[in-house]
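Reviewers of the previous submission asked for a worked example of the structure-prediction workflow described in the proposal, so we include one complete record here. The input consisted solely of the amino acid sequence. No template or homolog information was supplied to the procedure at any stage.
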Amino acid sequence: MEKSKTKAKKKAPSKAKPKQKVAAKPKPKKAVAKKEVKKRRDVRQLEYFNEVMAKKRAGAPSFPYTESVADEICRLVSIKTVSLDRIIRENPHLPSKDVIYTWRAYNKEFGDKYMKAKITQAQLLADEVLEISDDSTHDEMQDANGNWKLNSEYVARSKLKIHTRQWLAGKLHPRLYGNQLLEQTSDITNTLKELKESIDDIKKDDEKDY
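From that input alone, the workflow returned the following structure tokens.
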């Protein structure tokens, strides 16, 4: 009897409670946005690379990467203020622009060299701004009657050249040329306006004399 009572007093083993899952904390919006941007950029690069490869498979000649060719491209970019298309046209032995851009995207060493060459090109563009602004050779022209007048077409073209080079240099090297060239360009524009006004005044005075 006593043994049966002791057995009855023993408690049945309690069932273990299942662990509750802790809800994951939501990721910050900025981190998610950065990942999405990187993902989209990688997709665009992959699409561009596949497009280039498709052109090659369709019969376009392949061009293997070599240090000598890469150095020549960077050298030409650093000493000329023309577009990459023009450099390739003047040097037909170089690869196409698609191949060069593919090298830039997938070869870090070449990409770094190319960017340094573009920064050097920005310095050349800044020098050309001063040369164009100082050149007043064709600012005036003679009409059919032999009278001197402002060559508006030449002045407008010079202004466009200055603004284009200023914009490119500022984009390639904003720390050095971003605000500096903008101030120089505004000064040059004001000088051209003053020149036009002075020539117009002289022209009016000549007409009054006649």
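The longest strand covers residues 140-142. We consider this example representative of the routine output the project will generate in years two and three.
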